[in-house]
From TrEMBL:
InterPro entries: Multihaem_cyt_sf. PROSITE patterns: PROKAR_LIPOPROTEIN. The keyword Signal applies. This is Diheme cytochrome c NapB. Residues 1-22 form the signal peptide. The keyword Signal applies. Keywords: Signal. SUPFAM superfamilies: Multiheme cytochromes.
């Protein structure tokens, strides 16, 4: 019985992990909607991200764009968060700076 429970938990964890990564878009922030954005301004979220900020919050953005144990922007083709989006400007902290947790404030829907 214990082996079955462990196997079930493992399968569920793997399924949820794959589901989380499936939600990551391969479209880069450099899509045409950002052509008129001035240098230094935050890029718009691409149309494929409609509603994600509302339903997933910063954790959803961090899942594809952050540096954590479950996600790596280099693996899914997502634009990585800049250093200043992390606590104390340190990517190694793997924690979002609290003032950056409302992604949609600076990155409105394109």
């Amino acid at each position: 019985m214990k082996k079955k429970a462990i196997a079930t938990a493992l399968v569920l964890t793997m399924t949820l992990g794959v589901g989380a990564l499936a939600g990551c878009s391969t479209e880069r922030a450099g899509y045409a909607g950002n052509d008129d954005i001035p240098p230094g301004a935050a890029p718009l979220m691409p149309p494929t991200h409609v509603g994600r900020a509302d339903s997933l919050g910063a954790a959803g953005c961090y899942g594809c764009h952050g540096a954590n144990d479950q996600a790596n922007p280099m693996l899914n083709g997502a634009t990585a968060l800049p250093d200043d989006h992390y606590k104390d400007g340190d990517v190694g902290s793997k924690q979002i700076e609290p003032t950056r947790e409302q992604c949609i404030t600076c990155h409105p829907q394109g």
